[in-house]
Amino acid sequence: MGQLSQVVLDGIVLGGFYALIAQGLSLVFGVMGVLNLAHGECVLIGAYLAWTAQHYLGIDPLVALPVIMVLGFGFGWVLCKTLVGRVVERPPLMSLLLTFGIGAVAQGVLLRLFSSTPRVTTTSYSDDVVNVFGLTIPTPRAFMLLGAVVILVLTWALLNRTRVGRSIQAAAQNKAAARVVGIDIGAVYAIAFGIGIALVFAGGTLLGSAQGFYPFLGPLLTMKAFAIVVLGGVGRMTGTVLAAMVIGLIETMLASYVPSVGTGLGIAAAFILVVLVLVVRPNGISGGKQVTAGV
User: Which PANTHER family does the UniProt entry name for this protein (predicted)?
Assistant: First the structure.
């Protein structure tokens, strides 16, 4: 029973991280209809920024987190204005090819700057643990879960309690009507894309302190985020969080109870679950936008 409780706790921690990075993908796809294939590379950029801040400047990742999120927003805003915004409402293949190219370039740059050697952001609390009702969590992973929860709550408040958030939701629901009432759709796209990238930069910052990362990890993170978004329903934060927890629990269960091959099975199981759920609910758990071949 004790081992099961520990596995469940580990799954919740992992699910919190997955929810944070998947929400960035869900927001961009829900508002713009763009499936960002460079999503995982953006997570890694955040991780390498935090590593650089700690390694060269001695700045703790948690202290650097707000600045990295601001940099993420700026990077996303500029990227949308210069490249991604030009392919919105165009044939879907254009956005797929564009973001795939961006991801390939980002991976190449990271490989050139940091090599393929796995990195981890070492902090003063890297070896500490937190005890929760007799269960243990490495302190970096506890901060990863706490940070993910705080950022997701703030994102929910931004999207539901501010004028900017209501404009983003209006553009996601009906772009034509949003234009009629005077909403600048181009500005909304840039803001939404900026917020999405800020979220994944934050996820990368939190990830880097909890586990190793390297330039080739991006595609795997993109696949996991995509599976969570499809499973939870595009544009639905509640569904995204629930799906992320399910995926996190599946991965930790298989890794703990299926020796040697459990980690690999976790990825396969996630996509099998997506297929099974979509057979019953094509719009995902919470009934968001349906993902089709035309998106």
Answer: AMINO ACID ABC TRANSPORTER PERMEASE PROTEIN, BRANCHED-CHAIN AMINO ACID TRANSPORT SYSTEM PERMEASE PROTEIN LIVH
Other C-beta atoms lying within 10 Å of the C-beta of residue 279 = 8
> Would the CA dihedral through 192, 193, 196, 197 be positive or negative?
negative
**The one-letter amino acid at 190:** A
- For residue 286, what pLDDT band results from cuts at 50, 70 and 90? low
Nearest to 205 by CA among 113, 72, 108: 72
CA distance 49 to 34: 25
**Residue in 177, 200, 204 with CA at minimum distance from that of residue 188:** 177
Structure tokens at 128: 């500490």
pLDDT in tens, 42-55: 999 999 999 999 99
Q: pLDDT at residue 98 above 90?
A: yes
Residue 264 pLDDT grade (very low, low, confident, very high; cuts 50, 70, 90): low
N-term to C-term CA, the chain: 44
Q: Which CATH class is domain 4-280?
A: mainly alpha
Cα–Cα distance, 21 to 175 (Å, whole number): 25
User: Using an 8 Å Cβ cutoff, are 65 and 202 in contact?
Assistant: yes
DSSP secondary structure of 262-281: HHHHHHHHHHHHHHHHHHH-
CA–CA gap between residue 114 and residue 185 (Å, rounded): 38
Phi, psi dihedrals of residue 174, rounded to the nearest 5°: -160, 100
Least confident of 9-23, 33-47, 186-200, 279-293: 279-293
pTM: 0.90
